[in-house]
Amino acid sequence: MSTPPHSHRLPAAFALITAVTLALTACDPGGGADTTGGAAPAGKSAEIPTADVVSPVRKDEAAARLLPSSVRDRGTLRIASSVGGTPPGALYLEDGRTIVGQDIDFADAVAKVLGLRLEREAASFEAILPALGSGKYDLGTGNFGVTEERRRTIDFVTYINDGQGFAVRADSGLKKVTHLRQLCGLNVATGAGTTFEVTLEENKHVCEEAGKEPYAVKTYAEPGAVWPALRQGRADVVMSTINGLRYAVRQQEGLRFLGEYRRLDVGFAFKKGTKLAPAFRAAVDRLIEDGTYDRILRKWGTRGSAIGKSRISPPETKG
User: Around 270, how many Cα atoms within 13 Å sit in the side-chain half-sphere?
Assistant: First the structure.
């Protein structure tokens, strides 16, 4: 896979490695992780899953024929990948160059089905969607949830169903968050430019309406930075992806997952009106049919996010 240029990417890479190291220093003996294919069993030293589930994937001619002829002739696509700090989405290995993760496996597997080579560049989460509109990249990955606002300017091809959730320190009085009023007066850590930040900012009024002190939103450009903030008391609660929270809490003592807040479909992101969507949808469906899809989910312990069929820009999941 393509790696980012040293001159622009290594400082960020090492910051992310630090975040990974912090997140993976201890294992929670509970959690019931699905460890098939390389994930570390609960209670043992945590390791990033390394099983190769993509190499056996073969090109599917029917799916490839759905590509625009110009793309088939070129044989490459430019992809921007948001690289967080903790699995399962996307992260750097200790060499500071190699990017791995669930998003990476799905993108690479789809490319193999379509007979394409991906030219990958690591990019910040908040920069990817605008860059698609400008034509800098052909597609992007970053656990992008399908929302009505994003559908106005972005096309999606879904490959998992993830969503929003919360985690806290084990000594927190919070048991489950079913309404954002429960966060009033607290410091909430989340990633910059995410649906979580939008959700929190748009709903601050619920505290005022309830006559309570508003919660404070603490955003971090590097997703892995939310965990030190939580453990060190700078934040009271973390809002992030359901899968990311489950994974992180399994690997860190003294933290607790509070459950799902809401679900969202997640997809590959493209410029609005893309001609690539039908081929990508067919490729995801092919991976589901041949078993590769389930092997990727097993590898990253995310089988609860499986979908039955891929869709192009479905309506936002409500509730």
Answer: 21
CA distance 55 to 190: 35
Measure the CA–CA gap between 192 and 305, rounded to whole angstroms: 23
Backbone dihedral region for residue 60 (phi beyond 0: left; psi -120 to 50: alpha; all else: beta): beta
In this structure, what are the phi and psi dihedrals at residue 111, rounded to the nearest 5 degrees? -60, -40
**Any idea what DSSP says for residue 305?**
G
Please give the torsion angle defined by the CA atoms of residues 290, 293, 296 and 298, in that order, rounded to the nearest 10 degrees: -90
pLDDT reported for residue 224: 78
> What's residue 226's pLDDT?
92
Type of residue at 205? H
Tokens 């190499």 sit on residue: 55
Q: State the pairing for strand pair 117-123/76-82.
A: parallel
pLDDT at 319: 58
Tell me how far apart the terminal alpha carbons of the chain are, to the nearest angstrom: 38
Q: Residue with structure tokens 């404070």?
A: 216
Contact 142, 81 (CB under 8 A): yes
Q: Which residues of the chain have pLDDT under 70?
A: 1-46, 85, 319
pTM score, whole prediction: 0.79
Element (DSSP H or E) covering residue 82: strand 76-82
CB atoms within 10 A of CB 185: 12
Give residue 84's pLDDT. 76
Euclidean distance between CA atoms 48 and 30, whole angstroms: 18
Assess contact for 252 and 238: CB atoms under 8 A: no
